[in-house]
Amino acid sequence: MTSQTPDGQSEPGGAPLVDGPADPEHDPRAAYRLEPDYVASLTERIVSTSGETVAVYSPLDGAPLAHIPQSSDDDVAEAFARARAAQARWARTPIEMRAAALLRLHDLVLDRQDEIIDLTVLESGKARKHAFDEPIHIALTARYYARTAEQHLETRRTSGVMPVLTRVEVNRVPKGVVGIISPWNYPFTMALCDGIPALLAGNAVVTKPDSQTMLTALYGAQLLEEAGIPRDLWQVVSGPGRRIGGGIIGRADYICFTGSTATGKVIAQQCAERLIGCSLELGGKNPILILRDADVEKAAEGAVRGSFSNAGQLCVSMERMFVADQVYDRFVERFVARTKAMTLGASLDWGNDMGSLISADQLATVVAHVDDAVAKGARVLAGGRARPDLGPYVYEPTILEGVTPDMTCFGEETFGPVVSLYRFHDEAEAVARANDGEYGLNASIYSRDGRRARALAAQIKCGTVNINEAFGATFASIDSPMGGMRESGMGRRQGSEGIHRYTESQSVATQRGLTLGPAFGMSDETYAKVMTASLRLMNKIGRA
Ligand code: NAD
């Protein structure tokens, strides 16, 4: 299999591209940048009988990519019916066999990374080096849960009310069919990472990836099947969330949602109506604190990655930077210099430090935030312009100074390559400003004193805090939970919480010998006295 870079060179192992755009008028399969048969082999997995399709275009250059079949409510019902039947069989499959499939996925993802990255870049417009993070995150997640699921899920003995006589075991029972609604910003990792622990816990999954990035998500589903996950266990439906989201929530036993806070609130209400659980991974306005003893060069390097990875379209991306007086000028000089030296471009090849935004809507938001700030007096230290010469939605990495509370980008998530700099005088004040607002997703602290930085971290109201790193240290440490406080979410992905959310705990108590009521002809009054005395004794001997 070969693919072509924009300058026409072949690359082995990537997604099969066509030589030039086919004519939409005369190509009934309407796949223009990618080979039509290849696109059809992906889209045939969508449960869709509606006959309706939606065209998607690459943000790299606007070339058409595919016509994506849309799912009706009947199709969503069919996807759940298939998933439910498959789940009953899967729940009886030994955990070692489930884990073995996920370990095969680990290797497949590494082997097929060129194809995964091609699809991701074609659909999202991001730089190749940022797309590379996606197969890596899925390999890490698959390996972690394949190796630890048995331990997370094993039946646990707990202490019974009557020592020795009450034996209690807690089982972890799969929820059933999990609905996963995911966004476009990390199309491969967001489509798969939350489903991996759901599968290992014995569930089936119905996914609704974002409409803009269906091909990458479908390729992930194909890899799961190749790894040995039964096809019906992982269903893919497509369509606008507002149209088919209700049908998913109405049929699922649990919902995992990643996306905006506004949509997360709607989904939480719908789940509450049905009394089903949900985890919500939402937005952020993430702060980075550069303390007076920070290694300035290291902080400037981390600040570039933290603010401009995936053109800032990253939930854990840094949009507010608080810098200590003592290092402010030195840090800003290094940060601005590094930012201005970045290579921008919208293409499939390596070498771009930052790629395109995904859509005209994203570009419009970024332009609106920067223009509003500038009109109200903010200074642009780097960037500040769209670059249509490089791609329809490319915007320069932008550093603002003098941002004030009346400007939109002060508190609202831009979800683009825009960061505001603020000077601080003492650390308590910096922490208070970092905690301002409603979000609480991710923070970063740069300091040479790890102990002081960890003490400050404990005061920050965010679900993850990275010290001397922007976001990768927590995000890639799959054994640790990841998610938001306050309006950044509910529940956690990763670690034991990331798999336990897909299970119900079930306590099974076996009572032996004495029953939990009066025995041997004892009166209720005597029983009450014996129980009271035994409770006092238990407290005295320190029993929980
Ligand atoms: P969005 O909420 O508009 O869409 C996300 C997904 O939800 C899409 O699949 C969409 O089709 C679906 N959706 C939309 N409305 C729906 C509804 N009423 N019912 C059911 N589904 C619905 O979010 P977006 O703008 O596409 O994504 C960007 C946002 O996601 C940002 O705020 C970002 O911070 C957040 N995000 C958070 C994380 C995290 O892990 N915390 C990760 C990635 C993105």
Description:
The protein is of the alpha/beta class and 544 residues long. The chain has 19 helices and 20 strands. The strands form 5 sheets. A 7-stranded mixed β-sheet has the order 14-15-16-13-12-17-18, with helices on both faces. A 6-stranded mixed β-sheet has the order 9-8-7-10-11-19, sandwiched between helices. It has a 3-stranded antiparallel β-sheet with strand order 5-6-20, with no helix packed on it. Helix 11 links the parallel strand 12 (286-290) and strand 13 (318-324). Helix 3 (95-111) crosses helix 8 (214-227), helix 4 runs antiparallel to helix 8 (214-227) and helix 11 (296-308) crosses helix 12. It starts with a strand and ends with a helix. Residues 1-11 have low confidence and may be disordered. It binds nicotinamide-adenine-dinucleotide. Nicotinamide-adenine-dinucleotide binds at residues 181-185, 208, 210, 240-242, 245, 258-260, 263, 266-267, 281-284, 315, 413, 415, 441, 484, 489.
Tell me the number of strands: 20
Range of helix content: 40-55%
Distinct helical segment count: 19
Strand content: 15-25%
Query: What is the alpha-carbon Rg in Å?
Result: 26 Å
Structural class call reads alpha/beta
Strand order of the largest sheet: 14-15-16-13-12-17-18
List the helices and strands and how they pair.
Blueprint: E1 2-4, E2 10-12, H1 36-43, E3 53-57, E4 64-69, H2 73-90, H3 95-111, H4 113-124, H5 128-153, E5 156-159, E6 166-174, E7 177-181, H6 187-192, H7 195-200, E8 204-208, H8 214-227, E9 234-236, H9 241-249, E10 254-258, H10 261-274, E11 277-281, E12 286-290, H11 296-308, E13 318-324, H12 325-340, H13 360-375, E14 379-382, E15 398-401, H14 408-411, E16 418-424, H15 427-434, E17 442-446, H16 450-457, E18 464-467, H17 472-475, E19 489-490, H18 495-500, E20 503-511, H19 524-540
Parallel strand pairs: 7-8, 7-10, 8-9, 10-11, 12-13, 12-17, 13-16, 15-16, 17-18
Antiparallel strand pairs: 1-2, 3-4, 5-6, 6-20, 11-19, 14-15
